[in-house]
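Got a spare moment? Tell me how you read both lines of this record:
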Amino acid sequence: MFYDQGFRKIVPERWEFANEFFRKGEKHLLCEIHRRKAASSSSSLPLANENEKLRRANMALLSELSHMRELYSDIIYFVQNHVRPVAPSGAFPPSILAPPPPPSTAGKPPSPP
């Protein structure tokens, strides 16, 4: 925190800091104490680029999620309004369980035994 304001540590073993504009009885110098500027723009540029790349990816994912939600809603609507319900397992109609009828023998000669 002190380093951001331009103070420097003067005694390594103690928490003692100094600033050339911080002097006893000289209040007019206090206005010269300023917070240091952030790191140079060249060092923060890769982070800004990565941040922008992540923002674009996030927007693309949100758009895709929205599209998938619409598709889901359309599928649910279609199933509810156009697909007949399936009978629960174990409750088949009799026509499904009945054996197929024997082949018709009309008009064919009898097969040898």
